[in-house]
Amino acid sequence: MTKFDSFCTRMWIDYCDENDDWLTASSRLDLDEYKNKYNDQNNIPRPKHWSGFLLSPTKIEFWKDVEGRLHQRLEYLKVSNSWKKQILYP
To answer: Which residue(s) pair with 74 in the sheet?
Structure first.
């Protein structure tokens, strides 16, 4: 699945507003309809009810709780255009 397929799938699901419903085999997603409707992946209209924020993080930490306070901590630092991974002390 390409980024375009993924985006179209997300748009289709949000437009239908059936996020809590099960997807059955008979109602499988038909992405071709949306590929034809929005053939320019750089110009797909945003639904009016969508909003958001553009985040540009320079540091991200993932923390996993482990028994005995020996937590697993991973830190990612952005250096130029790449990310450096570091393991931190609990």
So the answer is: 62, 87
- Quote the pLDDT of residue 15: 52
Distance of CA 75 to the CA centre of its chain: 20
Whether 77 has a pLDDT exceeding 60, the answer reads: yes
Q: Is 75 exposed, middle or buried (0-12, 13-18, 19+ CB in 10 A)?
A: middle
Instruction: Yes or no: say if 70 and 90 are a contact pair by the CB < 8 Å rule.
Output: yes
Longest Cα–Cα distance of the chain, Å, equals: 55
* Count of residues in the chain: 90
Residue-level pLDDT at 86:
95
What does pTM read for this prediction?
0.47
Rounded to an integer, what is the distance from CA 82 to the centroid of its chain?
19
Which pLDDT score, from 0 to 100, does residue 18 have? 53
If we measure between CA atoms, which residue out of 78, 79, 75 comes closest to residue 88? 75
Position 62, amino acid: F
